[in-house]
Amino acid sequence: MHGPTRQSVTVTDPIVARTRDELAEALSRGENESAVVMTMGALHEGHRALMRAARDEVGTGGTVIVTVFVNPLQFGPGEDFDRYPRTFDADRAMCADEGVDVVFAPATDELYPHGEPQVTVAPGPLGAELEGAVRPGHFSGVLTVVAKLLNLTVPSYALFGEKDYQQLTLVRRMVADLELPYEIVGVPTVREADGLALSSRNRYLSAGERTAALVLSRALLAGADAAAGGPDAVLAAARAELDREPDAVAVDYLELRAADLAPDPRHGPARLLVAARAGATRLIDNIAVDLP
Ligand SMILES: Nc1ncnc2c1ncn2[C@@H]1O[C@H](COP(=O)(O)OP(=O)(O)OP(=O)(O)O)[C@@H](O)[C@H]1O
Ligand SMILES: CC(C)(CO)[C@@H](O)C(=O)[O-]
Ligand code: BAL
Q1: CA 121 to centroid of ligand 1, rounded, Å
Q2: Which HAMAP family does the UniProt entry name for this protein (predicted)?
């Protein structure tokens, strides 16, 4: 009898492209479909889910690209651009683990060689609501860099997490309104076992703030569970959960929107969204709600 044999797994390092020329050279090697996952680095299991979904889209013969770029254009003054976690070695290791083919990690002046761009993408009215109301200019910065990264990576698919639901919605709208030839794929939110949505910013939280932050997912679940009672019941149930611990977090908004984020949904698929600060850390989360 033979004992168990250990299967050896070969992990191939992805090509790391720092310039647009290196990216073009790396992409010229792949002949099949490609998929891109755009990130700001500090990768976690949510990003891993996006990489796996990307691989599912293109298969083993396709090319999976991960971009790592902390985009200054989407940060306002006083936000955390300077202290945003930069963990490139660990990020590259996760990409290798997931069989990612190409990591595009440009410096700021590679992507913005003429400084701040003169021509940017206007996100429309939704860009000034919810996150956009708290972070003016944020979605113009996001959509501008997403458009640039789409056009540099030229993927068949681009994957975005539902955790940033407004971002996903606006990216879909940009692609539709500007006739961009890319398919946008949304990926469900990955959570810790206790419900907290994974986020690179979770690492800013103290133990007490992390516990306090759990009120967000509890409020969303309470809201979704109350869907049979209609929109007012959803909001009341979520609000009651937040009010149970008034000092846990400082809520920026709790809103129920249609699935496309139009205001005041009455029936059908809707989305309950929340944003709050736990200490100095801003967190967002959302959940699907099925209104009768
Ligand atoms: N928990 C998650 N589940 C699924 N997708 C996620 C999750 N967290 C982030 N993503 C997605 O990963 C992509 C890159 O996001 P990003 O690098 O900003 O990570 P993040 O954790 O959202 O960081 P931040 O803390 O800055 O919000 C986005 O499409 C985002 O929606
Ligand atoms: C899409 C994105 C990578 C653009 O900088 C960023 O907004 C993010 O990480 O969600
Ligand atoms: N995850 C969204 C990017 C940002 O907060 O700037």
Answers
A1: 21
A2: PanC
